């Protein structure tokens, strides 16, 4: 009887170790499109335009540096990565901008920034896959879709195995425009983020003329990583 119990215990230990190894292997596969290791960094050139009213806008150019600085295990056993963002006008002097987190949960890459959690990416990457990017927050449903590309050119970069996550692609040409997407590259991570959410003047004298009344445009492009 003791021999039988010992055999069962040994079997259970083997199964638990195997499952643990499988989980870690699965985790690594999931992180291929957004590698997360302490010390990993990404630098972006950012072009931003803020619209405050008709003919009232402000455009700026600056740089972001995102770096994974630490991690921990949450109550569900998920690994949570802290990403520190710095901002600079010249890539020489950097100021702390904010901290956000990444984590893998139920086959999805979750990004928590400014107290809101978004489903940035889902695994495994499949063409035309769709999901609710606001599944983990209280905002209204916002369905993203995925397009896989064998090659993606960004400036002087030529990447292979890229996935474009289209968050929204809508413009009624009368009242608003909402174009947002992010591009992830296998082995690199986020290489581009495009955000253009605008409202058009809706007065009778300017209706359908696509005169921007308010909104924000921001375009991040990778320039360095390691």
């Amino acid at each position: 009887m003791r021999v039988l119990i010992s055999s069962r215990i040994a079997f259970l230990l083997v199964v638990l170790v195997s499952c643990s190894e499988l989980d870690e292997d699965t985790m690594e596969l999931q992180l291929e499109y957004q590698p997360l290791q302490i010390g990993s960094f990404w630098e972006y050139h950012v072009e931003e335009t803020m619209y405050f009213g008709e003919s009232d806008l402000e455009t700026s150019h600056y740089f972001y540096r995102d770096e994974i600085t630490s991690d921990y295990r949450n109550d569900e056993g998920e690994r949570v990565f802290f990403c520190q963002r710095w901002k600079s006008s010249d890539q020489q002097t950097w100021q702390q901008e904010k901290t956000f987190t990444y984590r893998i949960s139920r086959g999805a890459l979750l990004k928590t920034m400014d107290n809101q959690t978004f489903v940035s990416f889902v695994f495994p990457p499949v063409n035309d896959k769709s999901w609710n990017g606001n599944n983990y927050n209280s905002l209204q449903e916002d369905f993203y879709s995925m397009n896989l590309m064998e090659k993606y050119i960004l400036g002087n970069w030529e990447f292979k195995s890229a996935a474009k996550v289209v968050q929204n692609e809508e413009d009624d040409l009368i009242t608003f425009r909402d174009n947002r997407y992010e591009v992830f590259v296998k082995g690199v991570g986020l290489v581009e983020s495009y955000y253009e959410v605008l409202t058009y003047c809706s007065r009778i004298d300017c209706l359908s003329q696509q005169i921007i009344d308010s909104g924000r445009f921001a375009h991040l492009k990778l320039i360095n990583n390691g």
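The helical segments are 2-30. Residues 1-27 have pLDDT under 50 and may be disordered.
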